[in-house]
Amino acid sequence: MSDAILSLRGVKTDIAQYHILQGVDLDVPRGQVTMLLGRNGVGKTTTLRTIMGHWRARAGTIRLDGDDIAQAPTPAIARRGVGYVPENMGIFSDLTVEENMTLAAASGPLERERLEWIFGAFPALRTFWRSEAGNLSGGQKQMLSIARAMAEERKLYLIDEPTKGLAPAIVSTMAGALRDLKRRGASILLVEQNFSVARALGDRAAVMDDGRIVWTGEMAELAGDAALQERLMGLSMETA
């Protein structure tokens, strides 16, 4: 894909004796939201962690804006403008919301305009600005995790299951914030099990199975074809 901000070719990743990624080929178009979908345990989280350098690829290339980052350390990948929101949130529980956000803005003080935009997306963070992050509810912690990635404009956002286990009202807030980030032209690779969120946010979709990408195409095409969903993932978006 000529305007892909991120391209993976033949990426293989092992964890201990297990071959998790078995030759992943994936393109993430610039300025679009790419949904990484599939059943549990097929390699979606490992794909994000490999891109971010938490797991080292045994083979293959990972190109960010044309440069191979497959063997780069995680801090160097982050400095290249990649924001990562892990499934386990990755916040500092003993620090306040303010301190978490300040640390996330690595290049300097938080810009007031950007902070007000984040407060607009997640009003609870303004309310609990001086509170320790460990005292937040689960949904508020997830908001903070997303907000940390949004503290600066990133070249690419990797987001792992941001709505998992959240109440419907919090899911709606989270989806609205991600939709706003998308409107700002962000490039996002998003793992998401909530298919209504995937359908609403995704421009393109890539479906994984057994450590490989088995289908890529427009999100609208996948969302509109129940038989294709059943064949690829064993379920239908209409009933999910």
Automatic annotation (TrEMBL):
UniProt GO MF annotations: ATP binding; ATP hydrolysis activity; branched-chain amino acid transmembrane transporter activity
Stored InterPro entries: AAA+_ATPase, ABC_transporter-like_ATP-bd, ABC_transporter-like_CS, BCAA_Transport_ATP-bd_LivF, P-loop_NTPase
Record's keyword terms, sorted: Amino-acid transport, ATP-binding, Nucleotide-binding, Transport
Domain ABC transporter, first and last residues per copy: 6-235
Gene3D superfamilies in the record: P-loop containing nucleotide triphosphate hydrolases
Single GO BP term: L-amino acid transport
Record-linked Pfam families: ABC_tran
Keyword ATP-binding: yes
Family: Belongs to the ABC transporter superfamily.
Name of the protein in its database record: Amino acid/amide ABC transporter ATP-binding protein 2, HAAT family
